[in-house]
Structure formats: C-alpha cells, structure tokens
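A reminder before we start the practical. When you read a complex entry, don't treat the lines as separate problems. The point of joint prediction is that each chain is placed relative to the others, so the output describes one connected object in space. Small molecules and nucleic acid strands, if listed, are placed in the same frame. In the example below there are two entries. Take a minute to note the order of the lines before looking further.
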Amino acid sequence: MGLVGESGCGKTLTAQSILRLGEHQGIIKTSGDIQLHGKSLFAMSEKQLRKVRGGQIAMIFQEPMTALNPVFSIGSQMLEVIDLHLDLNHNDAKLHAIQLLEDVGLQDAEHLLQQYPDALSGGMRQRVLIAMAMSGNPEYIIADEPTTALDVSVQKRIIALLRKLQQDKGLGMLLVTHDFGLVAEMCDDVVVMYAGEVVESGAVMDIFDHPAHPYTQALMGCRPEVAKGGRALTVIEGQVPAPGEWSQGCRFAKRCPYADLDCQQPVAANAWQDDKHTARCVHVQKPANIEAKTPC
Amino acid sequence: MLEVRGLSKTFQSGGFLRQGQSKKAVDDVNFHLQAGETLAIVGESGSGKSTTARLAMRLIDSDAGQISWQGNDVTHLQGRSLRLQRNQIQMVFQDPFASLNPRMRIWESVAEGLRVHRPSMSKQQRRDAVADVLQQCGLNASTMQRYPHQFSGGQRQRIGIARALIVEPKVLVLDEPVSALDVSVQAQILNLLNELQKASNLAYLFISHDLSVIQHIADRVLVMFDGKVVEQGAVADVFAKPQHDYTRELLAARPITHPSERISL
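Here is the predicted structure of the whole assembly.
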C-alpha cells in the first residue's frame, strides 16, 4: 500500500501514529482507532506497545545516515534490537544477526558486525536498517521514503530487495513516499493524501490510468517524464494550506481548476466511487485518462 | 562562451593522525557552454559533478587545465579581475534554506551581490533592482521585507534564483536545484528556469542525478563517473543510444513511470 502526497500533507504523521510514535513530540490529541488483529493499538499500555513496535510492525526510516548511532558498532546496535524481541543467547543472537545481514544482500556479515556506521555507504546503511527492521520477524513494515536519500542505481537495488523480502516473508508493507516512480515499482494499492485528508484511493493501475481527483491528476502531470517535447510542465498554482487554514469544504478547492460553489460544502471521502476506487471530489464524472507512459 | 579544457583536481584527505590519501575528484574534463543553452552534468554522488562546476566558476583552483571565458584565459585570474569574472557566472544551490542567512531580510540577501558587484548603486536603486528580479522569479515584491523562514521551499528556491540573477550573469550554475522539492514545486521551478532562459538568453550548467529532469530541461549532457567524463552529447542522442556501459547502467536504473513496466521477480 502506497501512501502518497507532498510535504506537509500528513503522510509521515499518519504512518507514525500507527505505532504511536509522535506522542512524545507533543502530539496531544488523537482520535479514531487503529487495530491490529482486532486489538486497539490506542488502548495498549506502553509495555504492550513495545512488543508490537518492531515485533509485529517494524519501521524503516528515511535517513540511513542519521538513523544509526555513530558511536556503537553495527553488531551492538543489531543485538540490542534482537535482544528486545527474541529470547536468544549471545551466540545465537549473533548468528541471527549475521543471517539477517546476509538476507539483505550484505556480504562478509561477520566482519560487518564490528564496523561502525561511518565505514558504510548510504546503500549499505539502508540495508542494515532493513535488516534491523526484520530482526523481530514482523508481519508488517512501515517504510517512510526508504530510497529518497540514495543514488538512483542504489535505489533500484533497495527496491528489488524490499520486493523480494516482501514476497519471501509475506510481509504487508505501508510505503510512505512522494515518488510516483516508487509507487509504480512496488504498490498494489495507493492512498493519496492532501492537507491531512485522504483525497483518493484505489488500485495502482486505476490511479495511474484513471486518476479521479483533480489533485492526483495534477500531481501526475507535474512529473517531468510525462511532458513531451520540452512542453511546459503542468503546475499546481499556490501551495498546500497549513493546518490552521483548512477550509470547511474541499481543501484543494482554492487550487483546483474545477472548483465552484458546491466545493464549499464538506465533501465525503467517497463522494465519487467506482468499486474500490474512491475520490473526495464532487466533480468526478469520468476520470480523465492521463497518458502516464512515455516512450523513451 | 565558457570553455574548459583538461580540467583536473586532486583532493588530499587525512592529516594529523591518519596517513593522507589523495583522490582524483576531477580528471581531464573538457566541455564548452554556449549562450542560451543548457548543459547537464549527471553522475552519482562522488562522481565529481559539483567539483567540476565549482572549478569552472573558479570557486576552487584547479591543478591542471584551462578555463576560458569568451576567448580569454581566466584560469589564473586573481583579485579584482576574478571578482569581475565571477559576476558572469552565478550559482544556485540545492538547499535554498541553508544558503540564506536566517537573520537577514530577503531583500538584503538578494541585494548582497549588488553590494559587491555594483558598489555605486544607492540603497533605493538596490531595492528597486531586488523588486524587479523577485517579480521576474514569480515572487511578489511586497514580500521582500520578510525573513527566509516565512517562505516555503519552492519560494526559497525562487529567492535563490533571484539572488543569482541580480548581478545579471550570463551563466547560472544550478547544483541539484530541484532535488529537495516536491514534484509539483519542482515543475514550477523548471518552468521558471525555462522562461528565464528564453527571456535573457541565459546559459545553464545544470547538475542533477535525475535523468527525467535532465531530459526535460537540458540540450546536452555530460555523464561523469569517478571524476571522468565517460560520455557527452545531445540529450536525445545520449538517451536514445548510450555508448558507454555506465550510461546504460544509469538509464537502466531510471525509475519506471507506470506500474505496467514492473518486472516480476
């Protein structure tokens, strides 16, 4: 599942609130509920939650450069996580760590355990973080922009690795990204967010072939690879409204070419619906067919 | 207009405790840049693309090679004549927030170049020039009293461009100018760069790792690997018929644009 949107649309906050990670950063008011196998995560104690975090749901962060502690070796950081989730003696834990590193395609894993993060490239660090995320045998992975900070060819390899792990271990993955290329590579379903709301959701093919919400359509048109022959790129005028400036009606209306008086009323998340494909927009009749494929 | 021949630069690392190592960051690079055209430099981190641009601008000194500007050798200019030369080539950085002083109002930041390059201008003339250039870059002149934190990422990049344009350079060096931006904002900035180029016949040296952006904006492209230029040519040719293995590898690593292109594992 891909969670897509621009900076400030609330996608990272949504992903982090699943594991209730924002609570110490001054996020006070949360409403709604998140359930895992029928149990509410919001009703859990901090102790129960610690078992879920990393155990059932693991997270991969955006910045492989800063997510590792520079003063501890890779081994001690990995063993710390393994200790937390599995009841293994020191030797077995070490063997498990080596196995995890080999699973993510790192060679000479035993030597790597003694290394410090500064000796590793960005791609290797991201592999180590993925290995750490896998250490508690999670059922679900939340990956927040897992490839953004990496070089293109390294990105491709990390994408292949995530897809392989997902296939081998039957993982459910929530992929938070602003990159439609990554969505095209990895996702079955897509949720598009704008200004704190879900504006469209559906199967990946439907979203790429028939984006319904004007925001999704515009976002697709902004990509330089869809503009042919040096034509100007589609732009979305204005900017995403800050949380205090959200309107009662459609939050995209101010920037939308189709906006009219109807858009000043609150719009339901499924104001337009075609099977599993929904859009928070009152003006969708027939989804526009954007030519997303470029011959090159 | 700008011509670079045999440019090389070696950096020394290490020092006090560690044995020094030398790394050839740029190795025998040649290129030329005409008015009104966009030359892109593509390569991975550490391939030497930023160093090449900084050498061509004379921000750092080269170990070997020659840089000429409109037929004159500028490789060894010093002092006043170097400052005059720098007036011709200005730079826009990747992270516009890091390149703006948070304690200066943006009009002061944008006007800084004028204080160095046009010292005879009065304060009022400088303000008028700032208002003009901000407008050209799609910003309202009434915002010039604000501080950098009051602007969004895209607006800050517009300020970064305005700041480079204020001394009326012939060449802009753009170092990953859109990689920190959201795709919708990126589109705005790319369109702005195209408009500015048409209006003032500017030449761009455009550093990027994003092949889609390069394909959209550049006329010619230099592919760099490990300090060397491994391939150069018209964008359409290089993308259609890459000659070097590394270029092929880069093109193969491009993100797909539609889920139907996905390769099954």
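Discuss with your neighbour: The first strand of chain A starts at residue 2 and ends at 4. What might explain this?
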